[in-house]
Fold this protein.
Amino acid sequence: MSHSTLQVNVSPSYPIHVGSGLLQRGELLAPHLTGRCCAVVTNSTVAQWYLEPLTHTLETLGQTIIPIILPDGEAFKTRATFDHIHDCLLEHRADRKTTVVALGGGVVGDLAGYAAATFLRGVSLIQVPTTLLSQVDSSVGGKTGINHPLGKNMIGAFHQPKLVLIDTDTLATLPQREFLAGLAEVIKYGLIRDLTFFEWLESHASALLQRQHEAMSHAILTSCHNKADVVAADPLEQTGERALLNLGHTFGHAIEAGMGYGVWLHGEAVAAGTLLAAELSHRLGRLTRTEVDRMLQLFQLFGLPTCAPDLGVERWLSLMLGDKKVENGVMRFVLLNHLGAATLEGIEADNLLPLLSPASCRFVEPSPNR
Ligand code: NAD
Ligand code: GLY
């Protein structure tokens, strides 16, 4: 069966394989296994579908498997779950040659990745993402970590995988709400750097909503291509280029933490946050109203939330002041100059006040809407 391969040009570089039936393709995994043991980290939902097929493939390669099955949900992306992974690795006498395989969505990928980054000061990691969001974003680029009650993804490490293996067949079992949430991160690439892709999304919305194979493959490959380019240009988020991937995330992370982790899905919070960032860009004289409305239409077409909950101005500001992009106390936001062109800029709290009040912003709702 054919598949496509992209390369992420960091040091050392690594492949992203995308295609159907890849969980069965041992020859794609074999070159990236460092020893004879794999710790497959997954969760209770994903395990039911995909742990056995992946374990079978790894066993045929002579691997011994340590299955580590986590509880499912963003609410478990915590220090306690992270410690549990280390406990299991130590109990099973995992060593420096053990490969950690993250099988699941972004929560599993971030947790397993952070555990791999820190176990024995760093062991090999393979990402096998099974949600749309993790296939187009979180499995690529080496950001790993956990949430803190005071802020999203506040504790973590950069730890690049050796391989990203995307079996598109796994999307068949993904619930619709999760699928739509993933589309928010797909749209993001179009908005920050790829107008042609944004236009393609507009014209292929119905094929995507039907999860047609060809359209899905194009969306995943184009997203990964964009992500790989950005990560290669700024692997450790030092120049500001990688920070552009955070369009809508300052607002979005505040929504996730403010509403309680797991109440809003990450992609849903990013969708509502992206429209707030668009409105901010418009108010600062960048995006035209027509461009904002075009964005609104696409998010609506994909059934994503377009209004943020009203967290109250004080809570919004306190959560956003804890964002990782804050420098010397100044909040920095990704703004859009045009559709397909983004920039990172410091914004004074005064500029945000009209956006955070439901009375004056069409993208904030007076009462929580999820
Ligand atoms: P998730 O990991 O919670 O997965 C969503 C749900 O889908 C879960 O219930 C999961 O069990 C289930 N699931 C996963 N695969 C399935 C499948 N194939 N079939 C049926 N059910 C399946 O959520 P997510 O949207 O994948 O990831 C969100 C997380 O990713 C957030 O914590 C976010 O912060 C993080 N993230 C990280 C990065 C990064 O660069 N590291 C980037 C974006 C997002
Ligand atoms: N998802 C943002 C990043 O990887 O930088």
